[in-house]
UniProtKB/TrEMBL annotation:
One of its GO terms (cellular component) is precatalytic spliceosome. This is G-patch domain-containing protein. Keywords: mRNA processing, mRNA splicing, Nucleus, RNA-binding. Residues 120-165 form the G-patch domain. One of its GO terms (biological process) is mRNA cis splicing, via spliceosome. PROSITE patterns: G_PATCH (PS50174). One of its GO terms (molecular function) is RNA binding. SMART domains: G_patch (SM00443), RRM_1 (SM00361). It is found in: Nucleus. It comes from the Eukaryota.
Length: 295
C-alpha cells in the first residue's frame, strides 16, 4: 500500500469519529477554546466531511489506477527498466522519461547536444504547479517568465528577483523543439520592502474560495517552508471576498524572503498580493483587519 493510499485511508478512518470530523473541519484551530459566540455549524461540518470523504475515495481510486499502469509498464519493459523516481510520476511523465533515456543525449544536425530534463526538475515542476504554474510563460505571446523566481538580496531595504538557473535549459529545449529564435529574457525586477514588517505574512489571490480544505493548506505550508520554519498556516475566508492566507514564520527574515518571492508570483492569472500582518492581531485570531502597510 502506497503512502498516498495509506494517508487517504487514515483520513477516512478519522472521519468515522466525532473528534476526527472536528479536526478535519477546524484544522489547526481545533485545539482552541470553544467560543459560545461563534458556535460550530453542524450542517457545514457534515458538508465538509462528505466533501473530504469523496476526495479521499477519489484519491484512492486514482492511485489504484496509477499502480495498475506501473504494473503494466513492468510487464511490458521489465522491472529493471523502471527506477524509483519514475514510480512517483504519472504515466505520461514516465513515458517521456523512458523516451529520453532510450534516445540518450542525441546530437542535432548542427552537432549540438539536445538538453534533457532531470528528475529533480520534474519534482520542482510539481511544486510550481501546486502554486498555479501551468508550464507556459507569462504575457500574451507566452514569452515571459517560465520558471520560479528567486529572491536575491542587494541591500538592507531592497532585493532583486531573477529566474532560477533551469530557465536556460527549459527555454533552449523549447527553441530547438519548435524551431524558434531564442526570446529575449525579462530583465530582473527590483523589489522594495514595505516600511512595516513582521513574522506574519498575509497573502491574497493564492487560494480560490472553493479550494479551502486541509490539503490545500498543507500544500501552501510546504511551499512557504522553503523560506524558513513555519509555525502556523491558516486559511481564512471572508464572506463575499477571496481567501486570505496567513503564514507565521519563526523568524522575521524568513517572512521577508517569502514576501520578496511570493509577491512576484501569479495564481490563476491573478497577481498574488503579499503584505505583513500584525503579530498581535494574528495571535488574537483577528483575521479581518488591514495588513500593516494598508493602515
Amino acid at each position: 500500500m502506497t503512502d498516498i493510499v495509506g494517508e487517504a485511508k487514515a483520513t477516512l478512518e478519522k472521519l468515522e469519529k466525532r473528534s476526527g470530523i472536528i479536526d478535519v473541519y477546524l484544522g489547526s484551530l481545533g485545539d482552541e477554546d470553544y467560543n459560545p459566540g461563534q458556535p460550530n455549524d453542524y450542517e457545514k461540518i457534515m458538508l465538509k466531511k462528505n466533501k473530504v470523504q469523496r476526495e479521499m475515495e477519489a484519491r484512492i481510486d486514482k492511485e489504484r489506477i496509477r499502480q495498475q499502469q506501473i504494473e503494466n509498464m513492468k510487464h511490458s519493459e521489465g522491472v529493471s527498466q523502471i527506477n524509483e523516481d519514475e514510480l512517483e510520476m504519472t504515466a505520461e511523465e514516465a513515458y517521456q522519461a523512458r523516451l529520453r533515456r532510450s534516445q540518450g543525449n542525441k546530437v542535432d544536425s548542427y552537432g549540438v547536444a539536445q538538453p534533457s530534463v532531470s528528475i529533480g526538475d520534474n519534482k520542482a515542476k510539481k511544486m510550481m504547479e501546486a502554486m498555479g504554474w501551468k508550464g507556459k510563460g507569462l504575457g500574451k505571446q507566452e514569452q515571459g517568465i517560465i520558471n520560479p523566481l528567486i529572491a536575491k538580496k542587494t541591500d538592507a531595504g531592497s532585493g532583486m528577483i531573477q529566474e532560477s538557473q533551469i530557465v536556460n535549459e527549459t527555454l533552449m529545449g523549447t527553441v530547438i523543439d519548435q524551431g524558434m529564435t531564442e526570446p529575449d529574457l525579462p530583465r530582473p525586477q527590483i523589489i522594495s520592502l514595505p516600511k512595516q514588517k513582521s513574522r506574519v505574512l498575509v497573502l491574497n489571490n493564492l487560494v480560490e474560495p472553493d479550494q479551502v480544505d486541509e490539503f490545500i493548506r498543507d500544500e501552501v505550508k510546504q511551499e512557504c517552508m522553503k523560506f524558513g520554519e513555519v509555525t502556523a498556516c491558516i486559511l481564512h475566508q471572508i464572506p463575499g471576498e477571496s481567501v486570505r492566507v496567513f503564514v507565521e514564520y519563526k523568524q522575521e527574515k524568513s517572512a521577508i524572503a517569502a514576501y520578496m518571492d511570493l509577491s512576484q508570483r501569479t495564481f490563476n492569472v491573478k497577481q498574488i498580493e503579499a503584505d505583513f500582518y500584525s503579530e498581535t492581531s494574528f495571535e488574537q485570531r483577528k483575521f479581518n483587519l488591514c495588513s500593516l502597510n494598508q493602515i
